Amino acid sequence: MSGAARTLAASAGVRTVVADYFEMLKPKVQSLLLFTTVTTMYIAGDPSLGLVALTCLGGALSAGGAGAINHALDRDIDAVMKRTANRPVASGRVSPQAAIVYGVLLGCASFALLSLTVNPLAAVLAMSGLLGYVLVYTVWLKRSTPQNIVIGGAAGAVPPLVAWAAVTGGLAGTPLYLFAIVFFWTPPHFWSLSLLMKDEYARAGVPMLPVVRGERETRRQILLYAVLLYAVSQLPFCAGGFGGIYLVCSVLLGAAFVYGALRLLRTADRRSALRLYLFSLAYLALLFGAMVADVRL
Question: How far apart are CA 4 and CA 14, in angstroms?
Answer without folding.
Answer: 15
